[in-house]
Amino acid sequence: MSQVYFEDVEPGYELAPLIKEPTREQLDAFTKAWGTTTGRFVSDEAAQTEGFTGVILPGNMSMAFLAQLMTEWAGSEGKLKRLEVDFRRSILPGDRLSCEGLVTDTEVEDGENRVILDVYIETQKGERALQGTALVILPNKP
Amino acid sequence: MAEVNPTDAIDFDRSVIGVEVEVGTHEADKDRMIAYAKALGETNPLYLDEEAAKSGPYGAIIAPPLYYNMFSLQGGLDPNVKFGNTGFDGGQHVEFFQPIRAGDTISATTQVASVYAKTGRTGTMVFTVRRTTFTNQNGEKTSVMDRINVRRDIQK
To answer: Do the bridges between strand A18-20 and strand A97-109 make them parallel or antiparallel, or are there none, so unpaired?
Structure first.
């Protein structure tokens, strides 16, 4: 994997989107690792009583896709320092998710090369289901 | 006219704000960490491959950043917000420190950091921010996470 460097980025830099198409099987594997056995993430019936068409993804699962986008981009020498995400819309298994990041600012502070990004997940309907900001520390070019 | 702070009108237990309580510990289990990483579709060998991770910078499998969500913890103090007929998970704001390694014992403390109301186009919403600090067995922080719960009235 190639390493991105602080000198490579400036405001307006767009990350290559991470595309995720979470399946029901993946959701079930996730809730199993979680130890969740009831409710809207597990049971279609429970989700329907809350007004959903069927099970939905936990916010902390889709948010983890944004964390993956950030950590894969930061590479082994970079570091995800902060991730602040608001959950705006529910995501269903089978949705096609584009996890995206846009650099809005860069600064050197306390000896750290800080990159500030807007991050979001857009669904196939063009809706931003999750939206927030991230702070990533990148290394200098050798 | 003086501006009225909408939070002043909300009924909740103000005495719990900022009071930190222990909410449990979690033993970071390698197999569970790997199952979590796989369910997310992670491909980083530091999360998935024990041999690769052993010779990596942390000497053991580490967990993806949001793994703390898998812990089963107590709820902490309840501000008992009396507002709205429905609640939802509004989001998370988290700061990362050390990664969680397989075999770590992570202890968690929680406080209700704030309760506030906002009135906008769609009415009033009340936000409860719970701040949880995760610390490993060496006393190093792994993350500090604000979970935001939102309460509102939905017209049926």
So the answer is: antiparallel
Flag if A32 and B69 touch (Cβ within 8 Å).
Answer: no
How many beta carbons lie within 10 A of that of residue B63, not counting itself?
A: 26
- Which helix (H) or strand (E) is A72 found in, with range? helix A59-74
pTM over cut 0.90:
yes
- CATH numbers and ranges of domains, chain B: 6-29+74-152 (3.10.129)
B89 touches chain A (CB under 8 A): yes
> Which residues in chain A are contacts of B29 at CB distance < 8 A?
none
Residues belonging to chain A: 142
Token output for A69: 């986008």
The ipTM, to two decimals, is: 0.94
Q: Where are the domains of chain A?
A: 1-22+57-142, 23-55
Helix A24-34 × helix B30-40 angle, to 10° = 150
CATH of domain A1-22+57-142: 3.10.129.10
Q: Nearest residue on chain A to B96, judged by CA atoms? A: A81
Measured distance CA(B22)–CA(B75) in Å, rounded: 10
**How far is residue B49's CA from residue B147's CA, in Å, rounded to a whole number?**
31
| Per-position pLDDT tens, chain A of length 142 | 589 999 999 999 999 999 999 999 999 999 999 999 999 999 999 999 988 999 999 999 999 999 999 999 999 999 999 999 999 999 999 999 999 999 999 999 999 999 999 999 999 999 999 999 999 999 999 9
From residue B24, alpha-carbon distances to B28, B121, B135 in Å are 13, 40, 11
How many degrees, rounded to 5, is the angle at CA A64 between CA A95 and CA A53?
30
